[in-house]
């Protein structure tokens, strides 16, 4: 809650700060902080002073009260003693002694008057004033009687004196004493009250003091926290300003260099590529000159926003100033990946801009430097990307140019290939070829692998190595793969009908195809449409596809298995720790990679590895296919190791469907036996 309160405080503060230059803002913060400290000090000191005053007041009141009580008691005491002396004057026979007592009697009166005067000087309540007045009135009545009685006694008239004493003087003196007693009571009460009041005033002063200093402390903490936060933010903002472009908020050259350096270090560790695009808007000066600088700024901002939207979070977009931007594509493993982003940049910059109520277009010239190809450090990469950009401008703007000329040619070729490919897909130039797998026990073609070929109108039959990446990168593989699957299924049904009962086809799936959400629906629909039975359809997947997301891959494989199709792990042995993961994948077949077969007749370790994989495969209940068998020498060794199924140029290259009938007709048993050394068949 407290922090929310702080946050609410800092918003209006931050808003107001927007109008102040940085140092003024900080100075006022510090000044505010100092004022706050002084305020706390002031409140604390005032509170303490107040407390001191009430304490002194309480002490005064107490002392005064004590004095008052003492005086009122003394008055009562003196009055009573005078009464006693009166009696003694009456009853003393010795005239000297009587004179002494009388003298004392008179002294008591003077003392009383003195004490009474003292008493009057003290702050008195109305009741006390009234009682003192009453006492004076009564004393004025009593004193003449006393003097008369004493005069009679002095004159020897003892009886007369006694009579006046008893009838007049004593009762009058008693009335005085009573009033004094009442005064004492009133004084007692008033002093009690005064002390109580003083104490409670002191107590409440103390409470106020606590509350005030508590509040001051709290405000102090709040202000301190706000100030610290604001200063921290100001620092961060200063840093942001030093590393970012004010107009677009993009990283500036300084930050770009740092990040690019990090990206290079990462790419070096992971053996990846980086694409550095130097982007310069075409004829930007014209925009500034004709539409004004505000419009130019707006255009720069919009371009910056578009570039930021295109790149991934790891990539960098920076502005070098003017109409120059840098986009860094990091962690690429193919040039094509970088060019893909370049295409997006070109496309995005070419979209119409709306500034005010005008719509207009612009374009950019882009130079590209690629790490590690065109430079190993930031300076070289930027310099070469810049050079390439000038080249792009020379060639007529609105285009991109790679620094490396050879790479430019490759990219141009790729662009051409992509155009051809899109036409080729429309015209059905991607055709299935077939390559048989031979079962060494039955000597029959058990499975036929479907391998695609592109019947290019001018370049002839193209192998997947040339165009498969492009198909995959553009996503076209999905459409092409579906068409091939349908055609291959239909082909298999017709071969089965022509006498190859039990024949199956093996279809390769790329990563994009495998991870298509509707893969299973497509497969089921194709099987239904072509009437091929599910167990006659095998899919071949490489381990790397499965390793992308093991859990999901297992789910997907199970879903395919439910349809009834069979699955093979292709290129087995070349991927990562495949053995460890193999047991998770419910596949039926392992296809051991060509790599192990290549030198199997020359390297005994290859034979040993192949044998070990075979044993593993068998223990997992899997079928094993060995691909890439090219010679009889290899086949003989594989035969000895105990291989079931083989595939390779030794038997046949991939051929068009029409050429398969001849392969079905061949007597494989005889052909293999003929070439085997005697005694090993
Ligand atoms: P793969 O699945 O490992 O296919 C085997 C490759 O080895 C084929 O190359 C085949 O022609 C070649 N090959 C067969 N026997 C031998 C031999 O004895 N020696 C040598 N040196 N090579 C042999 P191809 O047809 O060029 O295909 C290359 C790769 O392209 C395939 O590797 C597969 O991953 C992919 N591919 C081919 N057709 C398709 C397709 O229709 N869809 C998908 N997604 N990928 C395909
Ligand atoms: Ca394959
Ligand atoms: Ca393979």
Task: Tell me about this structure.
Helices cover 65% and strands 14% of the residues. With 681 residues, the protein is of the alpha/beta class. It has 3 domains: 2-238; 253-404, Alpha-Beta Plaits (2-Layer Sandwich); 423-675, EAL domain (TIM Barrel), CATH 3.20.20. Strand 4 (353-355) and strand 5 (358-360) form a beta hairpin. The longest helix is centred in the first third of the chain and has 86 residues, at 158-243. 30% of the residues are buried.
Instruction: Count structural domains.
Output: 3
CATH structural class of the largest domain? Alpha Beta
Ranges where pLDDT stays below 50 over 5 or more residues in a row are 1-19
CATH superfamily descriptor of the largest domain: EAL domain
> In CATH terms, what is the architecture of the largest domain?
Alpha-Beta Barrel
Enumerate the distinct ligands. ligand C2E, calcium ion
Helicity range:
55-70%
What is the 3D form?
elongated
Main β-sheet description:
8 strands, mixed, barrel
Structural class, by secondary structure, is alpha/beta
Number of helices: 23
- At CATH level 3, the topology of the largest domain is TIM Barrel
The overall average pLDDT, rounded, is 89
- Report how far apart the termini are: 87 Å
State Rg. Answer: 57 Å
How large is the share of residues in beta strands? 5-15%
- Strand order, largest beta sheet: 8-9-11-12-13-14-15-16
Number of extended strands: 17
What attributes characterize this protein structure?
elongated; 681 residues; TIM Barrel; 14% strand; Alpha-Beta Plaits; binds ligand C2E; 8-stranded mixed barrel; single chain; 23 helices; 3 domains; binds calcium ion; alpha/beta; 5-stranded mixed β-sheet
């Amino acid at each position: 809650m407290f922090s929310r309160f702080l946050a609410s405080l800092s918003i209006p503060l931050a808003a107001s700060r927007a109008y102040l230059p940085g140092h003024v803002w900080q100075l006022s913060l510090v000044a505010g902080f100092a004022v706050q400290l002084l305020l706390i000090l002031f409140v604390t000191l005032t509170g303490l002073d107040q407390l001191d005053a009430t304490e002194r007041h309480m002490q005064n009141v107490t002392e005064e009260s004590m004095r008052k009580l003492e005086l009122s008691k003394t008055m009562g005491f003196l009055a009573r003693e005078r009464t006693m002396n009166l009696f003694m004057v009456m009853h003393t026979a010795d005239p000297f002694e009587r004179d002494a007592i009388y003298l004392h009697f008179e002294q008591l009166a003077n003392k009383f008057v003195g004490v009474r005067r003292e008493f009057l000087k003290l702050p008195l309540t109305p009741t006390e004033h009234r009682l003192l007045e009453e006492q004076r009135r009564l004393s004025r009545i009593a004193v003449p009687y006393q003097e008369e009685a004493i005069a009679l006694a002095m004159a020897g008239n003892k009886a007369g004196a006694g009579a006046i004493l008893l009838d007049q003087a004593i009762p009058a003196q008693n009335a005085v004493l009573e009033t004094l007693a009442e005064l004492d009571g009133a004084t007692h009460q008033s002093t009690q009250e005064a002390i109580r009041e003083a104490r409670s005033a002191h107590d409440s002063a103390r409470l106020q003091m606590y509350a005030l200093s508590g509040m001051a402390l709290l405000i102090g903490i709040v202000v301190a926290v706000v100030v610290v936060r604001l200063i921290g933010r100001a620092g961060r903002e200063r840093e942001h300003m030093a590393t970012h472009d004010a107009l677009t908020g993009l990283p500036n050259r300084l930050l770009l260099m740092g990040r690019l350096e990090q990206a290079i270090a990462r790419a070096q560790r992971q053996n990846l590529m980086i694409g550095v695009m130097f982007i310069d808007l075409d004829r930007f000066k014209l925009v500034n000159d004709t539409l004004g600088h505000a419009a130019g700024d707006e255009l720069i901002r919009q371009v910056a926003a578009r570039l930021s939207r295109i790149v991934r979070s790891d990539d960098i977009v920076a502005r070098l100033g003017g109409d120059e931007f840098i986009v860094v594509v990091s962690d690429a493993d193919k040039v094509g990946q970088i060019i893909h982003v370049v295409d997006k940049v070109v496309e995005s910059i070419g979209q119409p801009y709306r500034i005010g109520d005008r719509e207009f277009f612009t374009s950019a010239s882009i130079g590209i430097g690629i790490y590690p190809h065109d430079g190993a450090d930031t300076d070289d990469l930027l310099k070469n990307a810049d050079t390439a950009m000038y080249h792009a401008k020379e060639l007529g703007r609105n285009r991109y140019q790679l620094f490396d000329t050879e790479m430019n040619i490759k990219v141009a070729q790729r662009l051409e290939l992509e155009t051809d490919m899109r036409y080729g897909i429309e015209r059905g130039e991607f055709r299935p070829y077939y390559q048989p797998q031979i079962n060494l026990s039955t000597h029959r073609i058990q499975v036929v692998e479907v391998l695609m070929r592109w019947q290019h109108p001018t370049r002839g039959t193209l192998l997947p190595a040339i165009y498969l990446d492009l198909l995959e990168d553009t996503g076209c593989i999905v459409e092409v793969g579906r068409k091939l699957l349908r055609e291959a299924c239909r082909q298999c049904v017709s071969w089965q009908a022509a006498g190859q009962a039990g024949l199956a086809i093996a279809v390769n799936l790329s990563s994009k195809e495998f991870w298509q959400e509707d893969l299973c629906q497509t497969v089921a629909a194709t099987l239904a449409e072509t009437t091929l039975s599910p167990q006659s359809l095998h899919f071949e997947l490489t381990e790397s596809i499965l390793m992308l997301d093991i859990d999901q891959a297992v789910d997907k494989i199970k879903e395919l298995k439910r349809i009834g199709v069979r699955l093979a792990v292709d290129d087995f042995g070349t991927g990562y720790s495949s053995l460890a993961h193999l047991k998770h994948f419910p596949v039926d077949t392992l296809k051991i990679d060509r790599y192990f077969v290549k030198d199997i007749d020359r390297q005994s370790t290859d034979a040993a590895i192949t044998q070990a994989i075979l044993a593993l495969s068998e223990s997992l209940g899997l079928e094993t296919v060995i691909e890439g068998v090219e010679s009889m020498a290899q086949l003989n060794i594989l035969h000895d190791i105990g291989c079931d199924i083989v595939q390779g140029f030794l038997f046949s290259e991939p051929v068009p469907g029409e050429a398969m009938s001849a392969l079905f007709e061949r007597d494989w048993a005889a052909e293999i036996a003929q070439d085997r050394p005697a005694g090993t068949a």
